[in-house]
Amino acid sequence: ITSYLYQSWILQKNYPEVASTIRRIAQVEMHHINILGDLIIRLSGNPKYISYQPRGTVFWNGRMVPQFDQIGKYLEWDVRGEKMAARQYQQQAKEICNGNVSAILTRLAEDELLHAEIFRSFLIQVKEEK
Fold it and tell me: 1, 33 in Cβ contact below 8 A?
């Protein structure tokens, strides 16, 4: 969410359509995180903002928001991130024995794949403009 908001701010001047779309995707992601937090609470867990890093799990912080110098780098990062999120949701949906939770995770994965496709289409447009 924070990465997408940052991108929308810095891309607004030169790429207003991309910035607007990224802002809408951030809103969808906010809805996703609310769904996940709710699920975690309902399953007696404690939702935490953590990130899985090569050296272990760390709490999320603002330094994790990527800052590139080209729109293409942002869009490539976004495509990879959305595809990775979709794979994680799909894997979790297979592993969870609760059919309702699996259905929700599967639906979130579908959204992530759609986001990846949107970012990919913008990436193609940007490359064609050069």
Answer: yes
